[in-house]
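Q: How would the structure tokens look for this protein?
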Amino acid sequence: MDLHKSVTPRYEGNVENFLVILFGIKDQSNWNRSIVNFIKICDSIEELNSFIDTLAYERIILIVSDSLTESIDNLSRFNSIYLLSSNITRTNNHLNIRGNFPNLKSIFEKINEECEIENDFFSIQFSSTNETRNQSFCYSQLLKETLLKNDNESNLKKDFLDFSRFHYNGNYIESTLINEFEQDFTVEKSIWWYTRNSFIRKMLNRALRTEEIDILYKIRWFIQVLNHQIKENNFSATVYRVHHYSSDQFNKFKEHNLNNFISFNTFLDCTLHQPSTFENIQGMETILFRIKTTIGIKTEQFRYFESKTDVLLPFDNIYHISSIEQMFDDNNHWWNINLTNMNKDNEQWNELIKEMHEEIDGPVVLIQLGKLLLLNNDYSHVDYLARLLFYDGSLKDNSTLLASLAALHHLLGSFDNRQCNYQSARLQFEQSLKIFLTFIPEDNQILSATYNNIGSMFYQENQHEQAIIFHQKALQCQLKSSSPDIEAIATYSGNIGAVYLDQRKYDQALLYYKRSLQILLQSISNGESQAIALVYDRIASVYWRMDKPTEALPFYQNALQLELKYLQDDDHKISVSYFNLSTAYAKLNRLDDAIDCAEKSVQQLLKSVSPDHSEVKENTDQLEGLRRRKWLQQLYE
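A: Here is the predicted structure in token form.
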């Protein structure tokens, strides 16, 4: 059973902060997609509600006939609502209703004004004394670090352009800009393009605000070149940025964040001069960030158009919060938050991020991203990205990247396996195999682990015949190899034995277990290991089920001998082996040996569980039963 919530596939063109819904309005012929690229027409309230339910990040602009507004249940779901109405003087009290307009052209003009303020949409991340918030902060910083990581195997610029063309297909203005970009772009013009009102800025604003992994992955080339242009410049200054924060959010921020870290999920536009006046917004706190930084760039000679801002800061900068001060003058009140650019060698920062950094370390960006998202419990977006990359064909001519994609599905399968979600794990391993088979033959040695994992998941699902088929495929991949992995052969043979054991095909189970044992005994110099102990135990179990305690006994003894040598002193498995030996001795009527092992089983068990544990009672009952049996035998001798 698949327990994961799936991600709705991205609608073609839905890569900007805003989208427009026309409800009950048929004519979209005059719509200018340079304002908002994605437009959806809904003819019924059911269609409208169903479509909105698929959205998670978008700022929705609704254009609706005035007569249909009463049929909409929750107007607060929309960022703004424009009413197409012949009565333009009618009063509408809802906060999100922007007004009544006589035609679509007048609405478009207002929407264009609304969309121009989208640069104010960015999120702020900060560390704190709260562990969950620290996890989120570290995740965002590691995401940035991973996106900036060199990926020499990929043609990132081509991926960026292909992704842009796909989502702006049919948008004449943006398609023209994409062609211009492809022909004329140089690294030195990164800021010029970023400050231009084009597909680049729109997609980047959305991706950095929402951290949607598919957009970030596809446009990371431009993120890298823009960040590089900013950072290669010599710069040192105190810069300023005004921001408005809800009062509730800001109060939480103040409680936990002095002397901690903060970052902005955007390329931050700043000024070199402190503003003299501030706009106060009801319910919002006005914040002036005073940022002392040694990394940034003056944009005057690089930007596309004249701007009130002077400096652009890289999106991976991290700042130390030096002080938070409430300020007043005759006309304004605001908060000064003084920030200092943090050196990435900062000991406090490295300690904060060390554990997560080690967990996601990987040789390929795609794998590192997958590990990071799984660490953030975001399985669904890893799966979505992996399937997107396979089906869009962007990796089809690159066997190295295809191998990475197969490894990503393997990572997902392993995650599912740990969660005991065996069907989902098998489907991930099967997808990994499907990708591998696009560029290597089916008996290639590298596929043995994947075949084995699929077999193991079938085994967990009690599909024994399928399990044997795939375990045999895993075994054959190794046996046909010019340099077989001996340990893997022993493991796969043991796995086949386990399936036959469950099927009660004991002769077949013994055959494969003994092959596994023989390989391990010959490949390990001293003939001793935990792996060998496990096989001894399995063989003993087969003989026990065949009601052959005499044959089982020496294998139980050998297993216990190795466990006592290689396992921790309080390991539970030692207790189990003593118990098994006790039952074997009892079956052979060697009651003194049986009682001795039963006593040791209880003693060993008490090293790891409390006396009232159910297993302690079971083992104690076994011991007492053996003692009674011996007493009765002695009584009637």
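The CA atoms of residues 20 and 61 lie 5 Å apart.

The chain has four domains: 3-115, 124-355, 441-523, 544-636.

Upvote if useful.
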